[in-house]
């Protein structure tokens, strides 16, 4: 016997006030009443579909309370047949029956499945897909599904509402067989006069009360001789996940692509900027970073007030990241009554040559000097001594004096050649720094200033402007990344919403058959988790391969990428979890069962 007393349920208005109902076995128990009077509400209370009890509930001499395990009761002792004959569309008829039994911890043989379907005259449908069945066939299979767990209580919600005459009486006949089997208490909510005419106990809701019009007292002494297997129940859930995850949207692959693009875009840009700095500041043959005592400007030689001492120079050379400090010299000489300059150079000038000569002296002259040459030879006087040099080439007109205001008639000599010709005759005005590729330029500047704060550090590139440009570019990239990530999040929310809504009745059926909300959320999470792990592995492989092909990255870079990918996919799964929980709360499972 099942007895509910002191039933008090209210929503916007009172539904039941201190009422009771008692259900017995070997009786066709039917509940009738006008639409909106509370029939489905009472069915949910009896079926433990509400999150808390609103009554004193006696279930076969076992008093239930709000601390009872409702999910376990639903899974083992209560069967449901709904108006919409919900079944698992991805499974065959046989697979549905086996799943229902396994979920409650019962293992059925093929013969037992066949026998169970025979009770509802659906044994010929055993291998068919659910979407291949007619409405009447689906309803009878739904009854077999509910019976598979061998329930103590079987609830029907409008089981004949959409059936023709033939299928209606087939369903009524099946229900009567269940009633007379003396194994299960049957409770049917209906408007159908054909069902009402077959009833033994007719309960009617009127004026917030429950009245029994017909009553046959038969009490069931239920002996649960069926051994339940919890391990089998867990296997059933795993089997369901395996079937259902094959139909998950492929949106995760799109997410994978977008996340990978974001990752590689950032890594690629970081590498690009690193190479750009190395090329344009640190190791570019046409750009320089100079140290000296004087004003911070390009042509500073005329204003240099003192030379860098050897002690200071050695300290600068010992700074980590500085590869070498190349001296720059400039002297005045005379050629055919013309005042000329002799300057050292350390940059590659061959690309700036307008006219070359067949020798390897690596000595060049500015374009304004070409009238002073004798073929490839140049003679000049320095401190009353005559020098004859072989000239390797004449430079383009655009290559001008970048160190002083002393004129543009210049002979460019390598430092080693200058020292050979004019050793100890002059001190270097400044030093040009060369760096290791991994140098932190700002840190080097700070260390030089710590050695002597009066030293000027000048770059032919406007570093501040370059850093500002980089900051702007990085800000732009960051905004793009944020926009893409926002799109991904919106797509995930949309996809999870669509997926859950499309399966809402299937999820409701799982809930009705004993799965808690927590277990359903876990199923939704696990379904996506496998794809996420797969996507994470693919993203890491693709990232590493592309980095190896196009960029020179360290082991730490690879580790950073793996960690970044992991964080991204963990975040995505967390979002999916939150969305699943939100939707299951918003689209109440109980409400879905009432649709």
Automatic annotation (TrEMBL):
The question of whether Ribosomal protein is a record keyword is answered with no
* Cited SMART domains: AAA
Protein species of origin: Candidatus Erysipelatoclostridium merdavium
User: Which protein family is named in the record?
Assistant: Belongs to the ABC transporter superfamily.
* Membrane-spanning segments: 251-269, 473-494, 531-551, 557-584
Q: Which residues form the ABC transporter domain?
A: 2-232
Which GO molecular function entries does the Swiss-Prot or TrEMBL record give? ATP binding; ATP hydrolysis activity
Domain of life the protein comes from:
Bacteria
The protein in question is named ATP-binding cassette domain-containing protein
Instruction: Look up the record and report any one GO term of the cellular component aspect.
Output: plasma membrane
UniProt-annotated location(s): Cell membrane
Instruction: Give the main location.
Output: membrane
């Amino acid at each position: 016997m099942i007895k509910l007393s002191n039933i008090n349920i209210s929503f916007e208005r009172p539904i039941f006030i201190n009422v009771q109902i008692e259900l017995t076995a070997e009786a066709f128990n039917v509940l009738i009443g006008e639409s909106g009077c509370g029939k489905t509400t009472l069915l949910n209370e009896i079926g433990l579909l509400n999150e808390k009890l609103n009554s004193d509930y006696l279930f076969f001499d076992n008093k239930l309370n709000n601390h009872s395990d409702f999910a376990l009761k639903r899974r083992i002792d209560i069967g449901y047949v709904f108006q919409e004959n919900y079944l698992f569309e991805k499974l065959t008829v046989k697979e549905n029956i086996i799943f229902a039994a396994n979920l409650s911890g019962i293992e059925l043989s093929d013969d037992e499945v066949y026998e169970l379907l025979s009770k509802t005259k659906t044994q010929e449908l055993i291998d068919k897909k659910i979407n291949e069945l007619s409405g009447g066939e689906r309803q009878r299979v739904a009854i077999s599904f509910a019976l598979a767990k061998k329930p103590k209580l079987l609830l029907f919600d409008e089981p004949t509402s959409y059936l023709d005459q033939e299928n209606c009486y087939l369903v009524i006949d099946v229900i009567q067989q269940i009633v007379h089997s003396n194994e299960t208490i049957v409770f049917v909510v209906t408007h159908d006069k054909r069902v009402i005419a077959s009833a033994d106990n007719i309960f009617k809701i009127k004026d917030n009360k429950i009245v029994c019009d017909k009553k046959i007292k038969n009490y069931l002494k239920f002996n649960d001789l069926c051994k339940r297997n919890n391990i089998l129940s867990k296997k059933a859930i795993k089997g369901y996940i395996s079937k259902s995850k094959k139909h998950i949207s492929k949106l995760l692959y799109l997410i994978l692509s977008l996340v990978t693009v974001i990752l590689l875009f950032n890594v690629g840009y970081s590498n690009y900027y690193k190479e750009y700095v190395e090329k344009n500041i640190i190791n570019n043959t046409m750009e320089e970073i100079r140290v000296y005592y004087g004003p911070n400007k390009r042509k500073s030689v005329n204003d240099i007030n003192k030379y860098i001492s050897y002690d200071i120079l050695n300290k600068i050379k010992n700074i980590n990241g500085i590869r070498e400090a190349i001296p720059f010299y400039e002297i005045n000489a005379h050629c055919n009554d013309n005042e000329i300059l002799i300057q050292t150079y350390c940059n590659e000038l061959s690309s700036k040559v307008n006219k070359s000569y067949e020798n390897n002296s690596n000595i060049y002259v500015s374009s304004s000097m070409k009238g002073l040459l004798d073929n490839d030879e140049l003679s000049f006087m320095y401190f009353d001594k005559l020098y004859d040099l072989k000239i390797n080439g004449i430079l383009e007109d655009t290559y001008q004096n970048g160190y002083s205001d002393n004129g543009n008639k210049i002979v460019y000599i390598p430092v080693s050649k200058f020292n050979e010709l004019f050793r100890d005759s002059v001190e270097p005005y400044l030093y040009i720094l060369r760096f290791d590729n991994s140098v932190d330029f700002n840190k080097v500047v700070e260390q030089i200033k710590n050695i002597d704060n009066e030293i000027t550090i000048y770059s032919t590139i406007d570093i501040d402007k370059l850093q500002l440009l980089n900051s702007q570019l990085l800000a732009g990239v960051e905004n793009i990344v944020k926009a893409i990530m926002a799109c991904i999040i919106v797509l995930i929310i949309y996809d999870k919403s669509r997926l859950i809504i499309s399966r809402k009745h299937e999820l409701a059926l799982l809930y009705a058959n004993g799965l808690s909300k927590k277990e359903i959320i876990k199923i939704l999470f696990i379904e996506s988790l496998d794809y996420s792990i797969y996507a994470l592995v693919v993203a890491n492989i693709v990232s590493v391969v592309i980095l190896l092909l196009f960029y020179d990255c360290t082991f730490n870079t690879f580790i950073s990428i793996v960690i970044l990918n992991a964080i991204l996919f963990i975040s995505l799964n967390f979002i999916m979890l939150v969305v699943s929980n939100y939707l299951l709360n918003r689209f109440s499972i109980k409400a879905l069962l009432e649709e």
